[in-house]
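G., the chain you wanted modeled:
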Amino acid sequence: MSPMITSLLIANRGEIACRVIRTARDMGLRTVAVFSDADRNALHVREADQAVHIGPSPARESYLVGEKIIAAAKASGADAIHPGYGFLSENAAFAQAVIDAGLIWVGPKPSSITAMGLKDAAKTLMAEAGVPVTPGYMGANQEPAFLATEAEKIGYPVLIKAVAGGGGKGMRKVDAAADFADALASCQREASSSFGNAHVLIEKYIQRPRHIEVQVFGDSHGNIVHLFERDCSLQRRHQKVIEEAPAPGMDDATREQLCAAAVRAAKAVDYVGAGTIEFIADASEGLRADRIWFMEMNTRLQVEHPVTEEITGVDLVEWQLRVAAGEPLPMSQEELAINGWAMEARLYAEDPAKGFLPSIGRLDLFQPGEGLGGRVDTGVTEGAEVSPFYDPMIAKLIAPGDTRDEARELLSEMLNECAIWPVKTNAAFLINALAHPDFAAGEVDTGLIERDGAAMAVEPKPSAHALTRAAMAMVPKSSHSGFRLNAPDKRTAPFLLDGERVEVSLHGPGEASPAPSMLVAEGGAVWVLAPYRFDGSHGGTIADGDILSPMPGKVIAVMVAAGEAVTKGQKLLTLEAMKMEHTLTAPFDGVVAELNATAGAQVQVEALLARIEEAAA
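Predicted structure as tokens:
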């Protein structure tokens, strides 16, 4: 390693910060993390040799403030800054400020970032370099009437895109001329709000599009290579969900032409470092070189870079650091080859069954499918807090294999083994996506989730076998949990599954050490199973009228008073536990003989909240 870099500051957080720290440590470099208030105890802070606080939790007051990051590098003695991805990674002004401060910028030249930062200018540049571009209009005239005429020339459907856009913002598909004016105005408003630039381009909308990208790498000695392609076609609202390398259905001749075009694109901007040339393919007749067009260039490391690492055996972060230190590329194009297959799934803290709403909170259980032969890149550990301030991705699961089917099956196994609670994740959704017949066959386009995503997002339910296995751990051999001593070997009993009553089949004598509640993990999802102790219908050695707390929680409402007469099924009180409300009811007609619950009180599992006695005859 060149002595030019001895101490590296990572201007990022979470999974990518941990990823960069890992390679830098292996290379003998000292590492410096930066952190906001929300990330004070984060994994990347603990893993770095030194950590510097840079401000409040909102990114705009910490991770997006270039002056604070450069000051942290100076104060810590770092001589280089790695931006990761997101935040300031593609900010040419920040890159230049790092260089002007006398620090090493682990990334492309600011001029390259600028050249590829605006989609219209980048497409013009690519066309001049002989890189095929999507048919469309990329000019300066932004008059609505003129743009409508251009859309007619291109032919509907068309795509309106903000030239400074990204992440699916400032983008509208228009199917007919009558819809163009409204779509244009909406797109321009969103582009202006999100990027401070209302300028748009118009391009032909590809009917069966596939998103294929090529990893390129350049050094300061004029060498540029490609590390083959990735397929990122499985997307939800223009956000990648599962990525793989190589692309299914890509023949050698098409690959050669595609990758050669990517190298030409990188050379056109004198590229140095890691970059990705993104293409859109019309796959209506399979992958053909004459139906693949340049879309944009990402002038940074990509989230999905691990799949390229797995098929090439290259550590792309190590290459970044060596190139930034002035070294030539470690390998020539002739030395690079594809070996096997790899798939990556992005594990998000979100609830697909509720419209993919983010899920935040403490990760009391965090087992992200490790130990099966795959790779897990993450920035959190068990006990960490998932905050509302940043991207909800909590891990990436990467599965290698000799074939595509092997990689897909391993990834599915890893997701099946995921056990994360009480934060919700998209693991079950990803399992369903991997099992979709079109994905399994490699026939994926970017509209697959839009068409069939509702079925993939159905809320999973635990199997009867999983419930029985968990329930038996809560049934003591001596029947101290309310089951009759002389109960038959096979029977059913009521339990609470995430607060909802379910009947569970039981068999055998139960376990020696009963549990008050149990986590049931299956198919990438986790549920809480607890005894239905407050229902007297099943009899037992505990008084049938004892109303016990099924889990730790907070009493948020009490609907009865001591001495009050109640009827079977009448609501007694409501408990809030695990972000859900649980209403406890009277098991039979009677009187509230004892009431130990008050609104606002915190209660433990098995706490006696109330006792109902049968009314005197």
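The first strand starts at residue 7 and ends at 10.

Shout if anything looks off.
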